[in-house]
């Protein structure tokens, strides 16, 4: 009996979603078209969905391409078709809104068909919206700092988290910074996670006020790294691993190991045109266990 060859890791996932304006250029600086972006998401889906699937997502949609008007979409407008699902979530004012989530390649591609470039996710899954399964510290360097400073800061957070017994993982944002991701067993609710994140970030800023700030005020950021802990409140989102960014060169947010991070010199190291490299490294040993740890918040 002839053996059926296994699909190559970069084999395109079949998608039944029809793409209109296939040749529309979405990234003018690198000539990446709408169908190329759709193909990127279809192929990366098996690697991306364990992180981005089945959690409420907000989309950055740029229907005319990244250089034209973009908007941030949180709620379902009812136009995405049935591969993009809805989850009702209570809002602050007591009303209920339908948020979006996807769980298939078709769902990702259906969003691209609607002009989406970026996928931002909640820190909790649709199965337990009120109990976060990850905490994120988004390191935002002031202009003028180099990536080396951001890497050092990320390492510092890693060490401080480890002292509290928490394992963490770095994510290149695809933009300027690094996100330090702390997986959580979904137990504590949003207020407790937000409180921990806030106190942790403030403690770092207090210990090294010349290096870190933990408040949003732009004026206080001069020459410092803002430890953006505000991603950890109910309703906030952060860029999902393997999401493309609506920025020059079509960069992608990429999970890396702490060892790899040392030799990387930009948060925009990979782009949607690096699909083969991304698929290959995702199966490699360096990324084994990225983002996975069974841990709860310690007393702090
Ligand atoms: P960089 O490394 O360049 O900072 P980033 O993804 O961390 O990239 P930020 O500007 O630091 O970008 O983070 C903005 C965060 O705010 C994103 O994680 C996103 O989920 C969220 N966000 C972006 N636009 C909106 C918006 N219009 N409304 C609400 N939240 C938004
Ligand atoms: Mn950031
Ligand atoms: Mn930020």
From TrEMBL:
<protein>
    <recommendedName>
        <fullName>DNA ligase (ATP)</fullName>
    </recommendedName>
</protein>
């Amino acid at each position: 009996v002839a053996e059926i060859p296994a699909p190559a890791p970069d084999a395109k996932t079949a998608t039944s979603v029809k793409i209109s304006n296939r040749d529309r250029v979405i990234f003018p600086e690198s000539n990446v078209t709408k169908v190329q972006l759709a193909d990127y998401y279809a192929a990366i889906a098996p690697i991306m969905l364990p992180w981005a699937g089945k959690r409420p997502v907000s989309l950055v949609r740029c229907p005319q391409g990244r250089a034209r008007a973009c908007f941030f979409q949180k709620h379902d407008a009812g136009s995405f078709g049935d591969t993009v699902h809805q989850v009702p979530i209570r809002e602050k004012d007591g009303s209920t809104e339908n948020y979006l989530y996807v769980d298939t390649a078709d769902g990702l591609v259906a969003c691209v068909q609607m002009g989406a470039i970026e996928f931002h996710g909640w820190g909790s899954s649709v199965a337990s919206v009120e109990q976060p399964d990850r905490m994120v510290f988004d390191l935002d360097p002031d202009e003028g700092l180099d990536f080396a400073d951001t890497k050092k800061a990320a390492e510092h957070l890693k060490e401080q988290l480890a002292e509290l017994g928490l394992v963490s993982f770095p994510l290149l944002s695809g933009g300027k910074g690094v996100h330090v991701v702390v997986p959580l067993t979904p137990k504590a609710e949003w207020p407790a996670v937000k409180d921990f994140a806030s106190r942790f970030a403030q403690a770092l800023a207090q210990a090294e006020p010349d290096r870190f700030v933990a408040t949003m005020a732009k004026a206080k950021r001069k020459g410092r790294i803002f430890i953006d802990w505000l991603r950890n409140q109910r309703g906030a989102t952060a860029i999902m691993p393997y999401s493309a960014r609506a920025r020059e060169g079509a960069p992608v947010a990429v999970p890396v190991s702490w060892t790899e991070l040392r030799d990387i010199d930009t948060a925009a190291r990979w782009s949607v045109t690096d699909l083969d490299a991304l698929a290959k490294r995702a199966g490699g040993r360096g990324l084994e266990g990225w983002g996975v740890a069974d841990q709860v918040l310690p007393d702090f």
